[in-house]
């Protein structure tokens, strides 16, 4: 969206976007990660900025965008810490990050050595906090929280459960098993879910266009 032509409709709004997959350390040189590129979150952040919002982007993927506050994190715990600082003062949270559900129970202080007489190596994992659920549970009536749901099957029923459980105003569900949708591609097919409303499915489109669609939806419903 070019500056000149846009009525800056999000002026005065503080928007937080999380983006990218978290990296959960195993030892000083290794981590557990996922295939998230950060692109969906980046588009959400850039369009919000273009519409005049004051944007904070909390990201695991390096980003260099003008006119926004960019905070680089690696782990779910670091992301949570930043959200605890920024969320109370914000109007909208878009939780586009792919947060690891589990992290190694212990992080080795030194690089782990392979052992000549062991062919199997086991890492014990422990659950990460659910950031969306924790943060959204502190939400006031004036704050708007958006979660994503990445599914490979039973999209609607799984996403409905997340909407109910996580106290989000909206869940943007996508089938990450479908070609051209989800992780590490430029396009996405999204179904928007809200409490007590029929789901809305948008056609497959670029992540930028999805972000425009979303902010249009937000401006209409707020
Ligand atoms: N999420 C989060 N903290 C976690 C896990 C997920 O904040 N520890 C957020 C994601 O950023 C996303 C939403 O919750 O906005 C849904 O993530 P998803 O992985 O689809 O769902 P989960 O609740 O983790 O359930 P599952 O992976 O078992 O489907
Ligand atoms: Ca998950």
TrEMBL record:
Location of the DNA/pantothenate metabolism flavoprotein C-terminal domain: 10-216
EC number: 4.1.1.36, 6.3.2.5
Record note on cofactor: Binds 1 FMN per subunit.
Catalytic reactions of this protein: (R)-4'-phosphopantothenate + L-cysteine + CTP = N-[(R)-4-phosphopantothenoyl]-L-cysteine + CMP + diphosphate + H(+); N-[(R)-4-phosphopantothenoyl]-L-cysteine + H(+) = (R)-4'-phosphopantetheine + CO2
GO biological process, any: pantothenate catabolic process
One GO molecular-function entry: phosphopantothenate--cysteine ligase activity
Cofactor (UniProt): FMN; Mg(2+)
An example Gene Ontology CC term for this record: phosphopantothenoylcysteine decarboxylase complex
Annotated region (Phosphopantothenate--cysteine ligase), positions in chain: 15-222
Pathway: Cofactor biosynthesis; coenzyme A biosynthesis; CoA from (R)-pantothenate: step 2/5; Cofactor biosynthesis; coenzyme A biosynthesis; CoA from (R)-pantothenate: step 3/5
Binding-site residues, CTP: 101, 111, 129-132, 148, 162, 166
Key words, A-Z: Decarboxylase, Flavoprotein, FMN, Ligase, Lyase, Magnesium, Metal-binding, Multifunctional enzyme
Purpose of the protein: Catalyzes two steps in the biosynthesis of coenzyme A. In the first step cysteine is conjugated to 4'-phosphopantothenate to form 4-phosphopantothenoylcysteine, in the latter compound is decarboxylated to form 4'-phosphopantotheine.
Assigned protein family: In the C-terminal section; belongs to the PPC synthetase family.
Protein name (database record): Coenzyme A biosynthesis bifunctional protein CoaBC
Species name: Companilactobacillus alimentarius DSM 20249
Section of the entire sequence shown: 177 to 398 of 398
